[in-house]
Amino acid sequence: MMGKNKPNPPLxxxxxxxxxxxxxxxxDEENLFxxxxxxxxxxxxxxxxxxxxxxxxxxxxxxxxxRTANFTVNDIVNDMIDLRQRHPHAGYLxxxxxxxxxxxxVKRSVKLSRAVIQEYMHRYEPDLVRRRIRRRLKRRRxxxxxxxxxxxxxxxxxxxxxxxxxxxxxxxxxxxxxFKWLRVWWTNSNPRLIFGYYLxxxxxxxYIPLVTQSDPVPESFCIAKGHSFIRQSLDSQLQGTLQxxxxxxxxxxPPEIAWSGLRRDCVPGLEDILANPHVDYSCDNPLQYNVFKxxxxxxxxxxxxxxxxxxxSTKRRAQRNxxxxxxxxxxxxxxxxRYKRSGL
Length: 344
Known about the structure:
Elements: H1 11-23, H2 28-32, H3 35-38, H4 51-60, H5 66-69, H6 73-86, H7 92-105, H8 114-124, H9 126-133, E1 150-156, E2 165-171, H10 172-176, E3 178-185, H11 191-205, E4 211-214, H12 221-234, E5 244-246, H13 253-265, H14 267-274, H15 286-312, H16 329-334
C-alpha cells in the first residue's frame, strides 16, 4: 500500500504508549513519534504515523505541553501549598516532577515550565531558595560495565526512632539509576528478610545481575551467599567465587546518593506527620507499637512506592561533564541500545 494512502492508526491502539512516553517526558518529534520505540514497527505497513495527527491524539488524551497550557504562578498556588506539606525542602526540578505526577492523580495536565516554579519560589519561598543555593557538592567516581552489572544495596536507620527501617536497592547510578526496591518494615537487620526482597525482585524481572554490592554488614550475608549460589548454578566456572562486593565505609556510593535525595525530597514531610503530637504512642507498649506498625507501614510504603515510580519515570538531569545516559531509568533499562549501552 502506498504511504500516502495509508490510514491513521486508531487512538485505542496507541493511547497506552503515548501515555507511557509522555510520563517519561519525551518530546514529540525526537522521541515520542518513533514507531520502533512505541513497539508499533509491525504495523508500519498498515498505518501512516503523521506527526500532526499524533499531536491531535495527544491533545485528545488531555496531554498538553507547558507552552500550550501556559500556566502562571497563580494557577499552581494551591497545588504548591498542598505539595509543600509533603515535600517541604524540594527544589525546582523535584517540584516540577511532583506537579507532573499530581496531574495524573487529578486527571488534568499540570505540565509547566521550570521558570514558573522558579518565579513561585522566589516570590513565596525566598528563604528556602537561599538555603539551597549555599549547598556544596563533592564529586566522586563509581565504575560499572553496563546495565545490570551491579545491584547496589543499603539500609537506612534514621527513621528507627519512629519504629520504621528502610532498605533500598539501586541499579547503577551511572547507567540507569533505577530503584529496584525501596522497602519499609519495622526492621532492616534480618538477613533473610533482605534476601526475600531480592528474590521477589528477581521473580518479577526474570533475571539477576552479575554482581551485588553492599556495605560490610551482617544484613547482606544472605544476599551475598544466595546470589553467589545462583550465579554459580548458572555458570560452573564461577564455583568457589563470591559474586558480591563488600565496600568500605562511604564507598557504596549509589545508595548514599539515593538516601540523600530521599532525605531531602520525600522524608521531611513524612517526618512532620509522624512527629505530630496526635501521633502519640510508646514503642515500649506492645499494643500501641503493633497498632502503629499496622497503620503506618502500609501508608509509608505507598509514599515510597510513589516516590520510586516518579524517580524511575523521570529523565536524569543533563550534565555535560559526565558520560551519562540522560533518559528515564525505566527506559534506559528497557532499551539500553538507544543510549549506546548494553544490557548484561
